[in-house]
Amino acid sequence: MKNVTDSFVSLGRWPSAGSFGFNTDILATNPINLSVVLGVLIFFGKGVLNDLLDNRKQRILSTIRNSEELRRRAIEQLERARARLRKVEMEADEYRMNGYSEIEREKANLINATSDSLEQLENYKNETLHFEQQRAINQVRQQVFQQALQGALGTLNSCLNSELHFRTINANIGILGAMEEITD
Q1: Nearest to residue 9, comparing CAs of 20, 18, 21?
Q2: What are the Cα distances from residue 178, in Å, to 15, 166, 167, 173?
Q3: Which Pfam families does the UniProt entry name for this protein (predicted)?
Q4: Per-residue pLDDT tens over the stretch 78-123
């Protein structure tokens, strides 16, 4: 450091061509030098500094505007999503309720159809039983009638002689003839 101050001190001893010279007193020259440098910087750098600050300000404002726009869009999307969610939830509730009521309706229809089918089967069973009973009764009647007829024919054949037989046939022919005249 001594070398640096010696060089300034040696500059101060140069012969000057008039009143021009260097002041080597650091305490006296620093505030003057600083004020000159600051004045030059403020005078010439004011435009550059203003331009830099204006650019920075514009970028910050632009970023804020973009952020606000993005925020507004995000809020709109959120509201649309919430509305869509509410709509889907309402539709889901509606489907759920309709599904439950449809299931209950189908259950009731199935129970009614099964009940109707059982009732029809019961009716068919009863009709079949009645039909089978009537058929059995008719078969028994036919067998009884045939046995009675065979017994009667056997009794008639043993009791009848030819003359009685001939008179019975003539009487039946007469009855049939009379029936024919009535129907004509």
Answers
A1: 21
A2: 190, 19, 17, 9
A3: ATP-synt_B
A4: 999 999 999 999 988 888 888 788 888 888 898 999 999 999 999 9
Nearest one of 86, 109, 106 to 98, comparing CA atoms: 106
pLDDT digits (tens, 9 = 90+) for 14-44: 444 456 666 666 666 677 778 888 888 788 8
Tokens of 15: 């012969």
What separation in angstroms does the CA of 116 have from each of 104, 110, 122?
18, 10, 10
Distances (CA, A) of 44 to 40, 50, 62, 179: 6, 11, 28, 154
**Which amino acid, residue 58?**
Q
- pTM over 0.90? The answer is no
Cβ-Cβ contacts under 8 Å for 8 (sequence gap 6 or more) = 22, 24
What is the Cα–Cα distance from 133 to 128, expressed in whole angstroms? Answer: 8
